[in-house]
TrEMBL record:
One of its GO terms (cellular component) is cytosol. GO terms for molecular function: exoribonuclease II activity; RNA binding. It is found in: Cytoplasm. Residues 713-722 have a biased composition (Basic and acidic residues). This is Ribonuclease R. Residues 613-691 form the S1 motif domain. It catalyses: Exonucleolytic cleavage in the 3'- to 5'-direction to yield nucleoside 5'-phosphates. The keyword RNA-binding applies. Pfam families: CSD2 (PF17876), OB_RNB (PF08206), RNB (PF00773), S1 (PF00575). The keyword Hydrolase applies.
Length: 735
């Protein structure tokens, strides 16, 4: 075929058939037709003027990462290009997260990807359920890899004493092909794990998150002793300062301690002491290799996958109370107006006076005479004085934060409570008091000073960047906020534009929904060696300095600053380049966030299986052309009311106003209050389906709530008051 088409002229099918000598052979002509179709589909040929064929130019080979969909198809995710669709046949070769080489092909008028080769499989171990069919045993994976059953032998099943239905860990032996599924070997039974433990374990494998430290790293971590006078040499001794840690009730690793004092003229001195992880984790050591691979600690409900072994993360590196600890210090001078007037960084030794919690410090701020306050707080006048000074400074910095245009969104943070068996007993709102915000402001101070120091001295570090919104997202947001009478630029919005919308909508009942839309319009923050500033925080320069126990970029920054202030020659890092380190740490951060979100979603879906048929009050949080996403008011769990469940009328989607409008007058928009019934839960897709029982109120464009006097057309049940009573009864029982 190449011979004839390479003569310089495209050829028709008849010309090709004549060349091969079977123009009059109907069967061979039909076979040629199918072959030409296949070659067109695979990009080997191209059609000219509808009837002529020519050898296609060599396609561009693209490298990307596979993103699987639980429904069996997927995409090749490419840098700086639209994702390419992967048909089910192509999906036979890959698992989620695999790195592939592919080419773009045309099929039925659509561009798809054809995989040339799998460069790297994202994981070689999986967790699934042992199953049996007519062809033998296999491990059925769940979620995004459900399309890839892994065949195992009967002998392996027998040796492991596994039974059909058992959750097992399986290791790949032979990779999948178009013709054959992958084969593997069961290496561990997971029957002793409860549901919560199992989904966390499964998620770790699905995302390829390292969760077992190398023996070399564990051995290295255990070799360190408590710090001594030898370690204190060439460090500033801050053990006399009443430094304290303020963290959550269940925190086990303490990165940061704080202290503040008033200076002449109403100015302030702030000492932010951060765990000196760099003293223990040196470049290219076994600990460093494991930390770089993890990139960050991963937080699940009741379980943490730490970046460092616990001997360090909860021990020697953690700023535990009443023990000497090595630290890196940002010693900052702040004017009475909240402006940084000077700073210095230095290695130090400290002795935390108290391990305080947010709840304790908030209780003190609310009532200093509270008799339940801990002795470490109320009986230590130096600690109390520092806490009071920190609070005064926080109020100054908070006002300055608002003046510079930093954004403070109304969002709902939740906390899941479990019983001893690992089952959810309640989901409650997590409140943020002044103690949380105080620590946040002190950390922002240290982070910005570290970024400024790094830029001034051209240090080899990663900056925490948050780019401006792109024009496409800005244009959509412009149309959306216009629907409730506010203005927003369609191009190049500023911090002040966002802040104005946040303030104008803060007291509306649909504030959380509106602020979620604002958040979705913004770019994702990342790590890069090139500083572009932080749009959301309204900083020209920003970095992460304050959490080296759980974030690798912070550890990198500590090393660079320490090398500079101690005049030490930098050691060769583990990464090839700062660009590589930026990509790796950004990727591991996203991986950790997605894994945590998946586990939380699974737990909520699992919990809602107990409530199928129950009714709850809910609020509309997202409007789409196929229905409403609503969040349960009492439990903060999101689900979908499909458009078919909204009533017996035709609905039109108004994207600009974010509303569904019915032909007979029904209207649903963000912030509307509803009564819903739990219709079903799909654990494979992690989706909760609701059906509408009643619309209670509607939010108008001014943010006012209007009660709805009548029920939807398909609701022929009891009255609104009776329904509200029934809802309250059921939702109380659910707790």
């Amino acid at each position: 075929m190449a011979d004839i088409t390479n003569q310089g002229k495209p050829a028709t099918q008849e010309t090709l058939a004549m060349h091969f000598g079977f123009l009059d052979d109907e069967d061979k002509f039909f076979a040629l037709t199918n072959r030409l179709k296949a070659m067109l589909r695979d990009g080997q040929l191209e059609r000219i003027d509808g009837i002529h064929f020519s050898i296609a130019p060599l396609p561009t080979i693209l490298t990307g990462q596979v993103a699987c969909n639980p429904k069996g198809f997927g995409f090749v995710v490419l840098d700086d290009m639209p994702d390419l669709f992967l048909h089910e046949k192509q999906m036979r070769l890959v698992f989620d997260g695999d790195t592939v080489e592919a080419v773009a092909t045309e099929y039925r008028g659509k561009t798809e990807a054809r995989i040339i080769q799998v460069i790297k499989h994202s994981q070689l171990e999986f967790i699934g359920k042992l199953s049996l069919d007519d062809e033998g045993y296999f491990v059925q994976l769940s979620g995004v890899n459900a399309h890839q059953p892994i065949t195992v032998t009967a002998e392996n099943v027998q040796t492991m004493n596994a039974a059909v239905g058992d959750d097992v860990k399986v290791c790949l032996i032979d990779l999948p092909t178009y013709q054959e599924f992958a084969t593997g070997k069961i290496t561990e039974l997971l029957t002793s794990l409860n549901d919560r433990e199992l989904i966390i374990e499964t998620t770790l494998y699905n995302y390829g998150i390292p969760h077992e430290f190398s023996q070399a790293a564990l051995t290295q971590a255990l070799k360190f002793d408590e710090p001594t006078d030898t370690d204190f040499k060439n460090r500033v001794d801050l053990r006399h300062l009443p430094l304290v840690t303020i963290d959550g009730e269940d925190s086990r690793d303490f990165d940061d301690a704080v202290y503040a004092e008033k200076r002449a003229g109403g100015n302030y001195r702030v000492v932010v002491a951060i765990a000196d992880v760099s003293h223990y984790v040196t470049p290219q050591s076994a600990l460093d290799q494991d930390a770089y691979a993890r990139g960050t600690s991963v937080y699940f409900p009741h379980r943490v996958i730490p970046m460092l072994p616990e001997a360090l993360s909860n021990g020697l590196c953690s700023l535990n109370p009443k023990v000497d600890r090595l630290c890196m210090v940002a010693d900052i001078k702040v004017s009475r107006a909240g402006k940084v007037t000077g700073y210095e960084f230095y290695p130090a030794v400290m002795h935390s006076q108290a391990r305080l919690t947010y709840n304790q410090v908030n209780a003190y701020f609310n009532d200093p005479t509270n008799e339940t306050l801990p002795d470490e707080l109320v009986r230590n006048s130096a600690v109390l004085k520092s806490i009071d000074t920190l609070h005064q400074l926080y109020l100054v910095l908070d006002a300055r934060r608002e003046n510079r245009g930093a954004m403070a969104f109304e969002t709902a943070e939740t906390y899941i409570k479990f019983d001893k068996q690992g089952d959810i007993i309640d989901i409650v709102a997590r409140t943020r008091g002044d103690a949380h915000k105080l620590i946040e402001e002190m950390m922002l101070l240290a982070n910005t000073c570290a970024a400024n120091f790094s830029l001034k001295h051209e240090l080899p570090v990663l900056y925490r960047n948050h780019d401006k919104p792109n024009d496409e997202k800005s244009a959509r947001l412009h149309e959306y906020v216009k629907s409730f009478g506010l203005s927003f630029p369609s191009e190049a919005p500023t911090h002040e534009d966002y802040q104005r919308i946040i303030k104008a909508t803060a007291d509306r009942p649909d504030a959380i929904s509106i602020h979620s839309m604002l958040l979705r319009s913004m770019m994702q923050a990342n790590y890069s060696p090139d500083n572009i500033g932080h749009f959301g925080l309204a900083y020209d320069e920003y970095s992460h300095f304050t959490s080296p126990i759980r974030r690798y970029p912070d550890l990198m920054l500590h090393r660079a600053i320490k090398d500079k202030v101690t005049h030490r020659k930098p050691a060769t890092p583990i990464y090839h380049s700062l660009d590589d380190a930026g990509e790796q740490t950004s990727l591991t951060e996203r991986r950790a966030e997605e894994a945590s979100r998946d586990v939380e979603t699974w737990l909520k879906c699992h919990y809602m299986q107990r409530h199928i048929g129950d009714e709850f009050n809910a609020t509309v949080t997202t409007v789409t052309n196929f229905g409403l996403f609503v969040t349960l008011d009492a439990l903060f769990i999101e689900g979908l009311i499909h458009i078919s469940q909204l009533g017996d009328e035709y609905f039109t989607y108004d994207e600009r106003e974010q509303k569904l409008i019915g032909e007979r007058g029904s209207r649903f928009g963000l912030g509307d209050g509803l009564v819903i019934q739990v219709a079903g839960v799909n654990m494979d897709l992690l989706q909760i389906d609701f059906r509408l029982i009643e619309q209670l109120n509607r939010i108008d464009k001014n943010g006012d709530s209007q009660m709805i006097p009548s029920k939807p057309a398909n609701d022929k049940s009891d009255t609104k008051n009776e329904r509200s009573k029934k809802h309250r009864r059921k939702s109380n029982q659910s707790k």
